[in-house]
Amino acid sequence: MSLFGALNTAISGLDAQSTSFGNISDNVANSQTVGFKRTDTSFSDYLTTSSATVHDSGAVVTTPDYRNGVQGTIAQSSDPLALAITGQGFFAVSHPTSTGNSASSSSTTATFSTTQYYTRAGDFTMNNNGYIVNSAGDYLDGWAVNSQTGVVSRNTLSPIQISQTSYNPVATSELTLSANLPATPSSADPVSSQIDVYDAVGTAHPVSLNWTQQAAPNTNVWTVQIVSPTDLNATPTNAVTDASGNPVLGTADVTFGTDGTIASIGNPVSDYGTVGSQTTGGAGTPASFSFSGQFEAGVNQTITLNLGTYGSSAGMTQYAGTTYAQHSITQDGVPPGSFSSVTATAAGDIMVNYDNGQSRTIARVPITTFNDPSALQSQNGQAFTATTASGTPSSNDASTNGAGALVTGSVESSNVDIASQFTSLIVAQNAYSANAKVITTANSMLQTTIDMLR
Q1: Domains in the chain, ordered, with CATH?
Q2: pTM of the model
Q3: Most buried residue among 106, 200, 382, 410 by CB atoms closer than 10 A?
Q4: Which residues pair with 363 in a beta bridge?
């Protein structure tokens, strides 16, 4: 029985080493595959009889030892949408069942399998239909983001599709100035700040904020005139022009306290009458007033001029000096813009960029983690599906609740180490040869036994 047992055991050894060799072969073949996770081999023995006085040879069996949680090397990529995960977690992706690109269809909307897939292959690019896909053809899933409010909808994961529509213009509604008016100016001439504001169709209009210090003893009071040469109002309520004959859209007297901060705003007058009248304010409240103009014929556009806060050095001040020092001047209007590019951030935000300098966040890429990632079921294209043993998937923002961090412009390489695989290959080859030698030896011994019985 021992000879036949030895034969069976050696045959199981051949089978086990063949399986190990197959895993090694798969690992070596995918050593350059982005996001690939290697499979090692675990060996276990099966007993027949084993006691204090008798031990019969048994068998050896193998089970795959998945290394889905082992980090691969992070490598730089030239693609701005490429993403790599450092730490635990996977990208949620969808498998397409139809891309909508058949000869009989002009649809740009793909259809997807209802099964949720996961991957570490982050070599993402944008395809011709605006979807973000990796080299295996999987579509990156994300949470939708309201581009106006920035609110992330974390209830549903869906494939991210980029719309290359234009950025609609936004009319200016707020203008903010931060500067220091000199307590003792070197000249009595007005000091000025210039900026372009936008109307509802995105046309830029030059606006000047001209400041003139009142005569003593009111040197702490400055009169500001908002001037624009493109005002189209033919019959303004207050037909005022500056020294150059340009229409004045609004005026106000700004009084500074002994500490150099704004104490009050008096006599705010607009081209269309008094608007946003505000003469005093409590400390910490906005120091602002409104003015109007017609940058489009017959259309009144009201703009709020923000000068900081009462009693605060943020915004306009009057400190010692002889020259006007502008810190910043901004407005919230936007000209029209065309699609320029798509980028991803370390927070997982997918941002659409436009040639007018604006950006919109349209989606956020979460990181999905599992209690036991090595228990995930392998699928084609370096993808996985959840199993009972892997645990319930948990999707979170990058670097939160145990999820790994995102590295932009990079990909995760295969976690296969060629040197160790070659070592395993040599071991498997020698073990296979040794098992084959056991078989040939057992066969020779059986033949000797049979010859003895003849």
Answers
A1: 2-67+415-452 (no CATH), 74-165+365-412 (no CATH), 174-331 (2.60.98.20)
A2: 0.78
A3: 382
A4: 144, 350
